[in-house]
Specification:
- The structure is a homodimer.
- Chain A is mainly alpha-helical.
- Helices cover 67% and strands 0% of the residues of chain A.
- At the A-B interface, helix 6, helix 9, helix 10 and helix 11 of A face helix 6, helix 9, helix 10 and helix 11 of B.
- Chain B binds a DNA duplex through helix 1, helix 2 and helix 3.
- Chains A, B: InterPro entries: Homeodomain-like_sf, HTH-type_TetR-like_transc_reg, HTH_TetR, MT1864/Rv1816-like_C, Tet_transcr_reg_TetR-rel_C_sf.
- Chains A, B: It comes from Streptomyces macrolidinus.
- Chains A, B: Keywords: DNA-binding, Transcription, Transcription regulation.
- Chains A, B: It holds the Pfam family TetR_N.
Chain lengths: 235, 235
DNA sequence: CCAAAGCAAGAGCAGTGCTCTCTAATGTGG
DNA sequence: CCACATTAGAGAGCACTGCTCTTGCTTTGG
């Protein structure tokens, strides 16, 4: 008699499937956080879940597919953290929002080092991220573009002139990413975006050992300089 | 009668040892370049060399030790490439030497992606680089400091004032790395150093796919902006 | 109600890092 | 010059990995 409720799609089996899939990802994420991507073992995940390793292949066709799922989750987690930080700084001037987002990225990276390494470190060998990851991967970049856009619509942004050889490329990038913004701003914003991850990566991967001690202050200043480089002003 | 020549240290056995050690590293480097660090297999190296895997442990006590040797070599190779680029630009102004070194780093990274990933990507899981790597790892950084020093001794460098919270740290860094240079220059130089690797890493690890097309021009401009940020001027 | 599809389990293959034991070649001191 | 000690290599073996295939069992939809 009682028909399946709409939030119970396709009966108990399908529900079990999403639950098991989630459990696998959770356990995999635990191992990832504990030991790093290369030591993530399908067999160990299955063992911990009380199932046999071959059963796991019903849910993820290969180890790489599992990693892809974790990569997307990591991008989304980082993106959400960055967006939350931006929302919290909603009232501030764009330059301060920029710094807030940079600090959120750094904070997330320090809290999830192995997941950060998974998405921004060396790509897992022989593995190249599929198209599926693109939307999640783009979130932080889009957020930064949004901040620059807000600044531009308020007061405009300071423009550093581009060399002739870069003008066509900058115009192309602007047309593709933010046609309403000046190419100079887009070009410097993309450079700053990449440089942000240089700062975070160096701290995370130990390159700052015995070099930078007060990393929090160092990073805050560097992020502020990046904002300045993009043309944002602290009012 | 004929005593062992001085360039044949400790007889034939020791000589064979260095040769075999070198052969192992060479083959390992080949596999590293072909497949990446995680797929580097001791057994495959041994197989290729016509020896049995256990024999390899006479030369490297573990896979990690082999990787460490490769890491040091990679750092040295990169450092040599950077130094060569600097030497070639010896006559130019410091800002141009800076850009030349940056481009050399990028060029080396594009030519040796897996080795670059080995040293600047995520550290190999569970592995932390031992002290032995430090001197080789420092070469590019020291080179950049040298360029800033030359600029400072010629015309001085443009100084961007530091926020109060960063002053002590900047003074500490300057005292440790280059007591003869102003703290502002050292602080911005270290940030630029890290940011350089953000630019290279993003390009190498595919983050610029569908975003930046003319990467050469983009990078050159970004490197020039870094030089400017450090206080170097293109005269 | 019954065939079809989904699922878990087990065995098995080829590969890995690493250890241990044994033999043979190579050095070295008396 | 020879006995002893050191060292290189070989082979077997352990515990692990990703992945495949077959075999039954359970759920599901017509």
């Amino acid at each position: 008699m009682n028909a399946p409720r709409p939030n119970a799609p396709q009966g108990a089996r399908a529900r079990a499937r999403i639950e098991v899939t989630a459990a696998i990802k959770d356990e995999a994420r635990r191992q990832l956080a504990a030991e790093g991507a290369a030591k993530l073992s399908l067999r160990a995940v299955a063992r911990e879940l009380g199932m046999v390793s071959s059963a796991l292949y019903r849910y993820f066709p290969s180890r790489d597919e599992l990693l892809t799922a974790l990569i997307i989750d990591a991008y989304d987690s980082l993106g959400a953290a960055a967006e939350a930080a931006d929302a919290k700084a909603a009232g501030a001037v764009p330059a301060e929002r920029w710094v807030a987002v940079c600090e959120a990225v750094r904070g997330w990276a320090l809290a999830h080092p192995h997941e950060y390494a998974l998405i921004y470190g060396s790509p897992v060998p022989g593995y190249s991220a599929p198209e599926t990851t693109i939307p999640s991967a783009a979130r932080v970049g889009l957020l930064l573009i949004g901040i620059v856009r807000d600044a531009y619509q308020r007061n405009g942004v300071a423009r550093t002139p581009l060399p002739a050889e870069l003008k066509p490329e900058a115009q192309r990038m602007a047309a593709a990413l933010a046609p309403d913004l000046p190419p100079e701003a887009i070009a410097s914003m993309i450079a700053a975006w990449a440089q942000l991850y240089g700062l975070v990566g160096f701290e995370l991967f130990g390159q700052f050992n015995k070099v930078v001690e007060d990393r929090e202050a160092f990073f805050r200043h560097a992020a502020a300089r990046l904002a300045h480089e993009v043309g944002l002003v602290f009012s």
